[in-house]
Fold each of these.
Amino acid sequence: MRYSLDQLEIFARVVKTGSFSAAARSIGKTQSTISLAISNLEVDWGLPLFDRTSKLPVLTPAGRKLFNEVELVLERCLDLESHANDLGELVEPRLTLAIEVPYNAVMPVLTDFSAQFPNVDLDVRHPIHGDVNDLLLKDEVDLGVAFAQPAYPRDFGFSQMGKLILAHVARRGHPLTHQKNVSFAELRSHRRLVFSAHNNTLPSTEYLDSARCWQAESYLALLEMTRAGLGWTTLPRQLILRELEEGEFVELQLAAYPHTDWLVGVDLIWSKARVLGKAGAWLKCRLQDHKVYELDRNGNSTTL
């Protein structure tokens, strides 16, 4: 490559300022320096970039096309410089975030993170067994967003981000869907499809136990099993809005809680021993400030 980045920057500056003299003033160089740089660039490329027959230089057709390419090159150089600066300031090149809750709950945060740290790669993991704690203990993720647990290991930090609704549902036509109110005894008489990570760990799950229980390691598996009519289950309402709206799934109204939704906290979790860089610290702070919520059956926010 015979031409330099300096020449490309000068070429772009001449186009944007409209003259060699204006370009020289804007970057603190002499007009002769600007003229020489453009002339050398034209020699390197073997074609004229400006028509100099008029008082002010005008781009030739070839110059106009190359200017678009030059703009892309200079923009990419700025991205490269920004990336290098981030790395030099101890910004991690990659972060891993485990998310157990429906992803739409944290998308505003990820959108902001993308704008703030465009050069940091982000791995989003949904734990196979739903166990965010285990991933943190194994040092496989930097941060976790999960439904609140009654207790955490001592070396974990956590903060509540808000609350979401877990809905008890069955496929339309299931015997439980014909009842206006469903008792715990009636729930126990039918097969329960349960997310294995939450079996008897979330608050009040002890009341939902059943003599027949099938477990699955993902919400999507539970969704398909419920769709097949294999039993009733408990899923984040945000995950099944379409199925509820279309009437494919019916939400079971529990007799013990006829006027309330089952609200479960959503926590941000981290290992106190893990050192976060600039990007990780920013993401942690942004997640702590982010409010996770939805509207309950009365139209009220689940998080104040």
Note: The longest strand covers residues 156-171.
Amino acid sequence: MEPRWGLLWLLLAAASCLLEGKRSSVPRGIRVTYSSATEDCPGLPFFSAEGYVDDQLIIRYESHTEKMHPRVDWLNTLEKEEPKFYQRYLSILRNDQEDFQENVHMLQKLYNQSGGYHIVQMIITCEVREDGTRSGCWQYGYDGRHFLKYDMGTSTWYAADKEALRVKWEWENETDLMQRFTGFLESTCPDWLEKNDHYGSNSSLRKEPPLVKMSSRTEPEDGMETHVCEPYGFYPREIDAFWTRDGEVWEVDTHHATSVAPNADGTYHYWMSLHIDPKERGRYRCHVEHDGLQDPLDLELKVPQSRSNLWYIIGGVVAGVIVLCAIVGIGIFLKFKKGVDEQRNDPCTSSLMTNC
């Protein structure tokens, strides 16, 4: 049940801490996630592997195609100029697919489970700071909860329960596994950051201006209004978005996403909300600044539209039918990722481990 990391070669770029929509200087790093399940499910195949750069999905491998699907253009250039290199790691991913499918069944036996939906997940990260220091963490999850993790900086293992302890005792004495951890942190991570500088140097020229969706509703409890501003489809990732009142930055009664999040097409999205007295609606604006815009946007708040309760009922029923399978599969995966986010201050968990 030894993990193998065929996707490490393609994770090559500047990764950041959670920026919360603000510009900042950040360390560089990479993140890989593997998922393997007992059943196929819409949006979550038997096996998938993803590579992230700065919280942006750059490539995805899926078991039903057994191919790597680049999400950034420069990876196509890499495939053409270094085909043997590309095919080598495609072969590794196909082997990983078999290994992780076996892992699911082995963990089922470990927990005395005879059937049902179960999923194994792996997240591995590396961070290189401006002073050259490096840190990394490997984490293994089962059914949406932590199972094992390893802090590469302190060479420390963490087991979640007695079943995980049994695996820990086996793996911590495996020389080959420990060499992979060391090689990933000391060689693979910085080597591929350098390769990214070569192939991805033109990616910084891309600029996609944000589109902005404005929505609003009246709260039945107190008659106050909640307004949501959602910039989306923008690139690069850095964006300044905030509420203003009478032309001044306004933070009172506001909420916002914890970070700028990636879309499947390589662009990003963000949201923020505002709770106000409807009599003062005209004083507020959604202010957005981005390198893809010639001028900043200042968008007025919309008047809430009333909706029939019937449409809420219909929408709820339809949504329930559509996402039934996804609740079982994707919900477990997101639960594990949330656990990773909540442990960002843990000695083992680097700031890159966000929405793994």
Note: The chain is about 30% helix and 30% strand.
Amino acid sequence: MIMLTIANHTFKSRLLLGTGKYPSFEIQKQAVEVSEAEILTFAVRRMNIFEENQPNFLEQLDLNKYTLLPNTAGAKTAEEAVRIAKLAKASGLCDMIKVEVIGDDRSLLPDPIETLKASEMLLNEGFIVLPYTSDDVVLAKRLEDLGVHAIMPGASPIGSGKGIINPLNLTFIIEQSQVPVIIDAGIGSPKDVAYAMELGADGVLLNTAVSGAKDPVKMARAVKLALEAGRLGYEAGRIEEKEYAVASSPLTGLVGS
């Protein structure tokens, strides 16, 4: 399979995995390893990155094996998002940032205006910018026009597990985009992961679907395999849908015909 390229980073795996809400550090470690994900995302606000005596939920992982993708979860304005991103960059974690500016506390949907504003500000600061957005086709195009390095539309509300509720819009975003499209938020099962990849997505980011499963380690392996199957199916090219049945065995050229 073709590798995933985001700005100047190249990855074999198209699975991006969140690191929060696991039952234990050991289960987190096992799930991450089994998933074979190379990009791990986390909320900067969930860790004190400047105090070594504080608990570090990444401490069980060999961070030399992974690219860290800090996110600005908790930000309500562009200015907050930029401030969080600068903290992450100052700690030397990574030059990539997932821009997350929430506009509604109940649905946890992103604020389109503040997301655009934060993305532009961070691009001007030299960040590799990956904005989390809704499945708004026009907004995705506006973000790409700004120069972001990937688009991350949600499949459904964060943590809902509802899966892909608007495949048409996601398809429109994928078809128009010249940068990677990574489906983010709302994934509930391996089925959703395979579907996202069959639509033509370049990758999938998930957390709760794995960390909240009864067996996170098994689920991590399941979503890895689903992602690979979905991507292979997309690259292979599925058959055209038809209104009526078409015989799978030819009726001409047979003995006695």
Note: The CA atoms of residues 88 and 182 lie 22 Å apart.
Amino acid sequence: MEPFRVHILGCGSALSTLKHNATSQVVEIREKLFMIDCGEATQVQLRRSHIRFTKINAVFISHLHGDHCFGLIGMISTFGILGRTATFHIYAPKELEPVLDAQLELFCAGLEFPVEFHSVDTTWHAVIYEDKSLTVMSIPLEHRIACCGFLFKEKPTLPHIRRDIIDFYKIPISQINNIKQGADWVTEEGTVVPNNKLVTPADAPRCYAYCSDTRYMPQLYKVVKGANTLYHEATYDKQQEGRAKLFYHSTAEQAAKVAVRAKVGKLVLGHYSARYEDENVLLEEAKAVFPDSMLATEGLVIDV
């Protein structure tokens, strides 16, 4: 099975601390790298994670709060210093485009690679990126400004060839793709070998859901239902539920409620308030509702 991993670069919230960096992640899928959000210090975290800058195909910005995008122009500048030539794609709310254009003109004149901006409507659950193996969909969220999460979904793959059976019947390589597409095999004697004896089922498509920042949305589970891994902000514990509602954030317990209703494989908590020196209080709160919960931390690599 091809790797599908999430690299946590930063999982803190708006107030900088010595413990956590501002929000950023890299999704690694089938040898492609996509960044989600780009807070300050993202470049340093890329270095620490041994992720090659030049392999990042695109960045998805959830919203225009600084802890999710202040690192973007610096990273683009570094791409230029490193001699990038491939187009860099940015998927973000439309309000970023004029700001980014001004920054590029001021700080990054003479870039030798194109920067292509793709406006994302944060109010719609829609496909915003697609290639032959992956789709990325926006997830409308409820925050103080326009904000959305992202759903990374593998496309179904073809079944696996049973090499022992192929060799037994001396089936030529030229017919392998036809068999993967569902064809039977007919021997020289006229015996039909059914397709289900020639292949084993394809791997189930995997899915990663990223939800930050948002206050509790009781219906969110419908959009992320069945995800193998759900990242959901958990800025506060339940004692701060009123504060969470006021500032359009979630508690760990609320994140776990979404995970339960969505029947996800595992829940990753992040975007911690700086008030917590020990986030285990958030983890314990989530686990009481959804046992397969874990804390994000810088340097963590999650197998989706």
Note: The chain has a mean pLDDT of 95.
